Amino acid sequence: MALMITDECINCDVCEPECPNGAISQGDETYVIDPNKCTECVGHFDEPQCQQVCPVDCIPLDPDRPETKEQLMEKYNTLTGQG
């Protein structure tokens, strides 16, 4: 699944630079994650880096975007030009 940022986000700016895919950007009110770029850090790290640094724990899995690890790896390969 792609990750999402909930409205509990405090705009602390720590998640955006941690995303290896550039999937996180400033939205209208809070940061947002582009689900087409989010691989949950599959291919880069063992755990999603944005979740690791978020001080308010507001980055859960997006239930509307179920993806397997294989699908996430395929997306990673496409994004990095390896696919």
UniProtKB/TrEMBL annotation:
One example GO MF annotation: 4 iron, 4 sulfur cluster binding
Keywords: 4Fe-4S, Electron transport, Iron, Iron-sulfur, Metal-binding, Repeat, Transport
Example of a GO cellular component annotation carried by this entry: cytoplasm
Domain 4Fe-4S ferredoxin-type, first and last residues per copy: 1-29, 31-64
Cited Gene3D superfamilies: 3.30.70.20
Transmembrane segments: none
Designated name of the protein: 4Fe-4S ferredoxin
